[in-house]
Amino acid sequence: MPSDALESIMHFAHLAAEAMQERLGEQLVAIYLHGSVATGDFVPNLSDLDLIAVVETSLPASKKEELQAWFAKHTPPSTLAGIDCELLTRQAAATPSRLPHWDTIIRVQRHQPHFDVHIPESTDGYSLLDLAMARERGCVLTGPPPMTVIAASPRHFLLQACTTQLRRPLSWDVINDRSGAILTACRSWLYLFKGLHATKSEAGAWAKSQLPCYASLIDTALAQRRGDTGQILENQEVKAFCRAVLSSLEDAIHASDMESHK
């Protein structure tokens, strides 16, 4: 990504962090930048700006509305596809759970030529994997290091989160973001074998080297992520790959369950 584009995004991230500090005061514990901007895997016009904010206690509706109003008034850089600002309490961050209790989520989505801001009714899609990525590879915008605030999650919990993430596209008749589905599956597979929280590009490169029978499929997914729309991913091929990864995850979870009952 061009340095001026990254500079613009980081400037906006710091502005958002300052606005949250002003509005939340001592309630704010920390703000972490995670996802593709933090890890260097950002793709212009495709990737989001991902923020996790930790607060002392659940915020009143008035504070949530103030934060939502700030994002509505400040236009993000045009290279962003959107913004996910996820908030949870200090206790929720420090307590490992299969399903993190998000205090609120502010979602900014680009709809040309403007951005829409809303608080989703459901937290589906906002998972434990976000917290794990922020803990392991997040950048501090304010507050202490993420490993001192966000608890480490048991491997069993994270494998289950991976399966949930994979089942979602497999439940659709047609997967629209096929490259995203493949690279998300690669991330799950890499975590299963190496215990690492990787970017989509890192996971794709690893999986391609480990799974030669799928190398062409993964190569196409990586090319599409870089903006090459000349190559096609067939829906059924993508589903078959995701099912193969899901099967491996389910086998690992079953083996773990059997071991724990011995």
TrEMBL record:
Transferase listed as a keyword: yes
Name all Adenylyltransferase AadA C-terminal domain ranges.
Answer: 154-246
Note the superkingdom of the native organism. Answer: Bacteria
What would you give as a GO molecular function for this chain, any one? Answer: nucleotidyltransferase activity
* Keyword check for Cell cycle: no
InterPro entries, sorted: AadA_C (IPR025184), NT_sf (IPR043519), Polymerase_NTP_transf_dom (IPR002934)
List, for all copies, the residue spans of the domain called Polymerase nucleotidyl transferase: 18-68
The UniProt entry, under CDD domains, shows: NT_KNTase_like
Tell me the protein's name: Aminoglycoside nucleotidyltransferase ANT9
Lineage summary: Bacteria, Bacillati, Chloroflexota, Ktedonobacteria, Ktedonobacterales
